[in-house]
Recover the amino acids of this structure.
């Protein structure tokens, strides 16, 4: 459902990502790994529209989305999370999530000023979607807590909920398990599997190897901006090129 | 808090001229209300959307001069001129926004400072249109609407109060709606807002246009109320005044600009020497607020209540 | 032809002053990534301090300039410690507001002490110089000479001394610089001091051929911002080049187009260029 053809991104003279060809199958969990500087975040930024490719194409469900702005990409059904999520700390968790469904609404200033029924419908749907997303990630109990007062792990879940509220088909998770302990990582992995079970295609960048090996259906390995391997966890663990790329590099084995 | 304070405040405001029939106090109060409307508009782009627009006073001046020029030089009655002035200010705001909102935060602030300066200079130098440094004098008070006449300070006070209530009502509708939430999302993180499918540029432009509209309307009211305007109306020091109101009252809150406007106007009026040298106090005040008290009075109250909850 | 030469000299003079102010501003931006709106106030205070030294103590022109540079350097360091340092981790909005607060405060204090009237600062170099058959006021030549000497000194300091290189290092990579043991707070203070001194010198150089009044820094600082945005935030050659371009544009614009609207030239240029290239002409770092 997502096809990347010869994707390349150059900054000045340096190619951060070069000639990447990948096909992501619907409903699968694909992990992207690689040593630091391998181009993983650049790859994410390219797919989600934050960077424009220097060369290559990105096809989402057959539609050419190469070079589209991030908000257009989101509207087409690709959602992403960031390594740090900026929330409105003074508002409640639920309040923060309501805007997540805005991209599916059509109300504008006119509707707001005149209080049209379209606005009422849109706002009701946004609120319902927010509540549903919050329940899906298991955080209904903190719905009314100020967003500034939740734990790091809860924050990660809220980020997931926000992405889910946009009604995506593809979800890009940027280091979802960053900064949380092994038990929390376990729980988060279970949540990710639960999301995939609903039919979502998931792509995640992560450094925690044990989590990835158990979670991912397929793993894409990048090194110096190039794809060096793509396969099941078993295949990747046995791949000599992957082992060589990681020799000497330090990553967190959780 | 708003459920008790807002109606209570409105009752006080309505009874004020009856309890204190002093012309001077009414004048100061009405002026504070006009500035509160302007500050509420600035808060939309600054507090809710996080963009530091330093040209706000310029748009207020456009509103004021719009009314002034159309009524004095072209003989238009007040209310049509009022509407036209508001539209012109909004149009100029949209133009300025189209050009400037693609810029990053700092550049945008500097750019708007330049826009304000250009507006100021143009008003001062284009004497054929604006009467230059002489300014416009002898304007008429707002015309009658049906049986309501506005040639006394008291009547004008109520007129301005009506506009203030309308402005606050509109702001509340916007702030609590999805549109308002998209403003806040842009302020929190443009990248995250984009990832949520929000068109950041259009959102900023909408907030900017709205703020220009508020500024234009408040400027037009100012013209009808003070009935003398000069080029210094567009001076950036007025924008800084509004900035102080917003910061003191509570940036990004509904009642913040109003509270700040009333408090600081009372303060500067009661301490006469402060009038000329108000910046000696306002300057360090801004610094101290931003370092120790960035959420202002309303923000502080909210924080205490939130801590009480958790 | 004589007129043309006059305009060139005018352009050089203006450009030199703008460049000095822009240099200070870009140094600060390169380190702290904040547009320091109070820089214009430092410029203005420099002129007033020199005026005070010359008037109250009869200090000669160049002595007053040095005195002003020292005082303003100290003032700049104080502002770094008291205002900008506490806001290091706050949103950028707060930095900008604080800088505005500082600007307002300084302008109000100066006005309270010396009033809002115009003052003049005398320079001992009021002669006319005859150069290559052309006439030039000595003060203008001095401005250009002094400015270039300062810029050269700054360049040598930054490139040839250890302290100077720490400033460049921090501007290029703040965290990297800290890792190799560069004391960020000392470098910040030094940068502020240098930029303050540059602003004060620029003001005192320019004062004899213009006027001293509380708002004198407003236009200059805006033009300086325009210059560093166009020339590249944090770029020193950009600040100098940009300063000259604006200086010349204003000088020729004032003479050949209209003196009335000459101040708008810088901003009109700015608006034009930013509309076309929102990231500035040279979106790079310190070079």
């Amino acid at each position: 459902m997502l096809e990347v053809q010869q994707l390349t991104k150059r900054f000045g003279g340096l190619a951060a990502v070069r000639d990447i060809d990948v096909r992501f199958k619907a409903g699968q969990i694909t992990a992207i790994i690689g040593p630091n500087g391998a181009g993983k975040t650049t790859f994410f930024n390219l797919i989600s529209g934050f960077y424009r490719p220097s060369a290559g194409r990105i096809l989402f469900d057959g539609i050419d989305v190469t070079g589209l702005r991030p908000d257009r990409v989101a509207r087409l059904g690709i959602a992403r999370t960031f390594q740090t999520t900026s929330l409105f700390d003074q508002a409640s968790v639920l309040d923060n999530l309501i805007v997540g469904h805005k991209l599916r609404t059509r109300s504008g200033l006119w509707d707001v000023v005149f209080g049209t029924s379209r606005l009422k419908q849109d706002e009701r749907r946004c609120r319902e979607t927010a509540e549903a997303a919050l329940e899906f990630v298991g955080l209904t109990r903190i719905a009314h807590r100020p967003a500034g007062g939740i734990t790091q792990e809860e924050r990660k879940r809220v980020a997931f909920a926000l992405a889910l509220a946009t009604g995506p088909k593809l979800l890009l998770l940027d280091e979802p398990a960053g900064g949380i302990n092994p038990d929390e990582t376990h729980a988060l992995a279970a949540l990710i599997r639960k999301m995939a079970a609903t039919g979502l295609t998931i792509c995640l960048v992560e450094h925690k190897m044990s989590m990835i090996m158990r979670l991912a259906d397929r793993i894409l390995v990048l090194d110096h901006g190039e794809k060096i391997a793509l396969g099941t966890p078993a295949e990747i663990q046995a791949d000599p090129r992957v082992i060589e790329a990681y020799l000497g590099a330090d990553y967190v084995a959780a | 808090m708003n459920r008790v304070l807002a109606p209570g405040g409105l009752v006080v405001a309505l009874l004020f001229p009856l309890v204190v029939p002093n012309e001077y106090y009414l004048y100061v109060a009405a002026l504070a209300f006009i500035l509160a409307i302007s500050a509420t508009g600035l808060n939309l782009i600054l507090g809710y959307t996080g963009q530091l627009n330093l040209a706000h006073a310029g748009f207020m001046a456009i509103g004021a001069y719009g009314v002034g020029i159309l009524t004095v030089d072209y003989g238009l009655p007040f209310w049509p001129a009022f509407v036209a002035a508001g539209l012109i200010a909004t149009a100029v705001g949209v133009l300025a926004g189209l050009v400037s909102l693609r810029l990053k935060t700092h550049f945008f602030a500097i750019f708007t400072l330049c826009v304000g300066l250009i507006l100021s200079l143009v008003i001062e130098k284009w004497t054929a249109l604006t009467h230059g440094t002489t300014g416009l004098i002898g304007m008429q008070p707002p015309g009658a609407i049906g049986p309501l006449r506005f040639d006394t300070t008291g009547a004008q006070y109520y007129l301005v109060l009506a506009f203030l209530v309308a402005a606050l009502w509109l702001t509340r509708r916007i702030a609590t709606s999805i549109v308002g939430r998209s403003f806040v999302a842009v302020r929190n993180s443009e990248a995250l807002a984009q990832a949520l499918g929000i068109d950041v540029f259009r959102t900023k432009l909408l907030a900017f246009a709205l703020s220009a509209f508020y500024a234009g309307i408040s400027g037009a009211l100012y013209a009808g109320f003070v009935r003398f305007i000069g080029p210094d109306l567009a001076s950036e020091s007025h924008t800084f005044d509004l900035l102080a109101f917003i910061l003191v009252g509570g940036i990004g809150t509904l009642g913040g600009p109003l509270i700040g406007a009333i408090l600081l106007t009372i303060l500067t009026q009661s301490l006469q020497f402060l009038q000329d040298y108000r910046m000696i106090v306002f300057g360090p005040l801004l610094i101290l607020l931003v370092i120790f008290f960035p959420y202002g009075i309303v923000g502080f109250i909210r924080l205490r209540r939130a801590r009480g909850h958790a | 032809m004589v007129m043309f030469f006059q305009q060139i000299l005018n352009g050089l003079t203006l450009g030199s002053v703008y460049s000095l102010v822009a240099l200070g501003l870009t140094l600060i931006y390169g380190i702290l990534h904040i547009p320091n709106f109070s820089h214009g106030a430092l410029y203005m205070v420099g002129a007033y301090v020199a005026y005070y030294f010359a008037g109250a103590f009869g200090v000669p022109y160049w002595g007053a300039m040095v005195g002003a540079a020292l005082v303003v350097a100290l003032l700049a360091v104080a502002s770094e410690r008291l205002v900008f340092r506490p806001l290091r981790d706050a949103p950028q909005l707060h930095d900008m507001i604080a800088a505005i607060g500082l600007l307002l405060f300084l302008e109000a204090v100066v006005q309270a002490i010396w009033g809002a009237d115009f003052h003049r600062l005398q320079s001992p170099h009021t002669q006319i110089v005859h150069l290559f058959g052309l006439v030039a006021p000595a003060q203008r030549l001095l401005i250009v000479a002094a400015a270039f000497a300062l810029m050269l000194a700054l360049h040598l300091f930054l490139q040839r001394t250890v302290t100077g290189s720490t400033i460049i290092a921090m501007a290029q990579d703040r965290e990297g610089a800290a890792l190799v043991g560069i004391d960020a707070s000392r470098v910040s203070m030094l940068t502020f001091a240098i930029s303050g001194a540059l602003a004060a010198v620029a003001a005192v150089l320019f004062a004899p051929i213009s006027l001293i009044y509380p708002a004198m820094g407003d236009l200059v600082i805006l033009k300086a911002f325009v210059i560093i945005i166009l020339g590249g935030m944090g770029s020193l050659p950009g600040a100098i080049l940009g300063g000259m371009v604006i200086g010349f544009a204003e000088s020729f614009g004032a003479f050949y187009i209209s003196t009335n609207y000459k101040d708008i030239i810088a901003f009109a240029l700015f608006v034009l260029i930013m509309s076309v290239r929102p990231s500035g002409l040279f979106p790079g770092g310190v070079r």
About this structure: The interface with chain B takes residues 48-50, 69-71, 74-75, 79-82, 85-88, 90-91, 98-100, 102-103, 105, 107-109, 112-113, 115, 119, 122-123, 126, 145-146, 149, 162-163, 166 of chain A (CB under 8 Å). Chain A has a mean pLDDT of 88. The domain at 1-41+50-77+169-186+200-254 of chain A is CATH 3.40.50.300 (Rossmann fold). Chain A has two domains: 1-41+50-77+169-186+200-254, 90-166.
